[in-house]
Amino acid sequence: MIIEMRRVEIMVLKKRLVMPILISVVLGSLTLSLCAFSSSGGVYYEYNVTFVYYGGENTSKTVNIGPQDLKLILVPSIEGWQQPVNYTLYVNGKALSPQIVIDDDGNRVINVEDPLTIPPNGTLKITLLQTVYVESPPPFGSRKRYDRLVVDIDTSREETYVSGFWSDDANHTLENLANQLWKYSGEDPEKYVLEVIKWVVTNIEYDKISTAPPARPVDVIKLKRGACGERAALVSALLRYKGIPSYLYIALYYDENIYANISSRVIYEDAGLHVFSFVINSEGGFVIDTTLPLTKPEIPQSAITQSLVNTGDNIIIIGRFVGAKNTTLSDYLEVYSDKYIVTLRRLSVKGYDNLGFLISTSTAITALIIIIFLYARALKFT
Q1: 65-84: buried (b, 16+ CB within 10 Å) or exposed (e) per residue?
Q2: How do residues 286-321 score in pLDDT, each as one tens digit?
Q3: Which residues pair with 128 in a beta bridge?
Q4: Are 268 and 128 in contact (CB under 8 A)?
Q5: Smallest Cα–Cα separation from 67: which of 37, 43, 103?
Q6: Structure pTM?
């Protein structure tokens, strides 16, 4: 009798131990899945830019590829945002192995030593194909947010240069506006940044179409309107006039509904051109973007915290513009070929597929519910 009671006790003990172990295993697996998913999610894109040139009726033409001529920029690596995977340069369908040089703004640029010749009535097609990995934001990835408003004034940096593209006019329009906003901020650098954002959003009407060539910051004030790049340039200029280092990032955002045939020769497919400001500080810097999404004057901080580049994985940085002595924004945004085509293709998602993740998570949760139910019944009958 005693032996039989011991057997029953052992069986009950096993039941009480097995169920918690099963529950722990399911919960552990689910936790590991969530951790893996949240730390390794990102998207691969194919970025294709094509230039087409036509030869004259009775004359040949030449095209030079390099920092001072046709500027073909390789996508940069940016911590927590994106990583270039590979690239191929094609000339009339033939792959080339070009040199890589650094331009005045710090971009990696393709350089081909020999000029490319277009015979009379001929065609030259130049294509740069790049694959880029873009980090997704949490919970699907670990995209870094550059959104901490900390200002370090440093007039020794080239990003505070205020000549050339950033020049003022004879009336000191930029300098006077900067002084006025500096006074409004109580000479507090962080508050000054917010005053600049508020002023630009309030006084410069957003226009989807930029002037040709893109207007200089001082002219944007007079025009009272500007595209994303012109508003961003004005923001960076006003920061520079108070010794706050800032430059522009040139980007493409992916949208499968975009097909922009701008002038019969310029085509953007699944891609929109975008420009925003970036401020350098000791913590890595922060973004200022007043147009994607549009910033409201009463919430200037949202230009930093809610910018698409901080919150989404459908934007690729293709280059940066510091505005050195011999460069202008036109060097990056103006098109001089007879035809210009830009396309973005979303290739795949790194790590877990979203649908697969949802299915596996649902399955694990269902299994957990069944185990708890069975465990409760087992306890009831013991």
Answers
A1: bbbeebbbbbbbebeebbeb
A2: 999 999 999 999 999 999 999 999 999 999 999 999
A3: 49, 89
A4: no
A5: 103
A6: 0.82
